[in-house]
Design goal:
about 300 residues; Serine Threonine Protein Phosphatase 5, Tetratricopeptide repeat; 14 helices; about 45% helix
Length: about 300
């Protein structure tokens, strides 16, 4: 939790919440839940506290209590900055959302921006930018791009790897803190804030800029923060010139025809689902590569890299 979320505004409640966290870290989740409930008796409108209680209740095996705490979190924080709706879906208490709450994703990466590069590259062995750039290199034989649009650019990890091959490079992200980090690297010709879960018109920025201007659109390790990918493909379709390339990655959803919400609160997409969207948006597949894209809790996360071409 961020500093903004940590304090309830009540010293005694905060102290009990701190003790609860210590108990949880030692493995006593039931004791943590009991202490957290005591803290919430003092500050019943503390949304972050209810979300933390839900976590302790779930880990202590009290599923119904966890669901009740998550629903209370949503009542107090209807914009769902904590992603409580995602947790409710994982617990079987609601349908899987087609998209995560934009406020949740924005806050997640605003909080993560300062340590993002180091955490992913050094600690989680994150490799999508390098592997996606290498896939493009092999398929295009060193071809230079007139205009590259990097969707979900984050701090610019993919931008750094495509810069030398782009005459003009623009990046878009939902998180202003991530955009600030990307700006500090001075590799983009233009940066802008955009929500990929919205249509091109509703997102604002994509509806205002020229259509069919990019000969390469990238989405490196961003689509797992979307469920239904139609909006992202619609934005790409608007941006991409005929004959242009779309390079992107997903977490491998294995079998099935639709997206899957995982306990990590990220979405996974099977190849068949991606293929159906490519067909719908007149994209022909050029390259598909299955690979490990990062580590998570010590386990490898399987992903799929795609390179597709828009019909001329």
């Amino acid at each position: 939790m961020t500093a903004r979320q940590l304090s309830s505004g009540d010293l005694i409640a905060d102290r009990r919440a701190d003790y609860a966290k210590m108990l949880a870290e030692s493995g006593d989740h039931q004791g943590a839940a009991e202490l957290m409930a005591q803290a919430l008796e003092l500050v019943p409108n503390w949304a972050a506290g209810w979300f933390r209680l839900a976590d302790y209740e779930e880990k202590s095996g009290r599923k119904e209590a966890a669901i009740a705490a998550l629903r209370h979190t949503l009542r107090l924080s209807p914009e769902d900055i904590f992603g409580a709706s995602l947790k409710l879906a994982l617990l079987g208490a609601s349908d899987t959302p087609e998209q995560p709450p934009s406020t949740y994703v924005e806050q997640l990466f605003d909080d993560y921006a300062e340590r993002f590069d180091q955490a992913l590259v050094e600690k989680l062995d994150y490799s999508v930018p390098e592997k996606l750039a290498a896939l493009i290199e092999r398929a295009t034989d060193g071809h230079k791009f007139r205009h590259v649009t990097d969707l979900g650019c984050g701090t610019g990890l993919f931008g750094e790897r495509i810069r030398s091959r782009a005459e003009f490079l623009e990046g878009f992200d939902l998180s202003v803190n991530m955009l600030a980090k990307a700006e500090g690297k001075a590799i983009y010709d233009r940066l802008g804030r955009a929500d990929l879960s919205l249509s091109p018109v509703d997102s604002g920025v994509f509806g205002e800029l020229a259509e069919a201007r990019a000969d390469l659109v990238s989405a490196a390790d961003v689509l797992m923060y979307l469920g239904n990918l139609e909006s992202a493909f619609s934005i790409t379709d608007r941006l991409l010139a005929p004959g242009g390339l779309f390079a992107f990655s997903v977490e491998d959803g294995a079998v099935g025809d639709g997206f899957v919400l995982r306990p990590s609160l990220r979405y996974a997409h099977p190849q068949s689902y991606v293929a159906s969207l490519c067909a719908e948006f007149r994209l022909s597949m050029i390259e598909i590569e299955r690979t490990v894209i990062r580590m998570d809790a010590g386990l490898p996360i399987a992903g799929i890299l795609f390179l597709a071409r828009k019909s001329a």
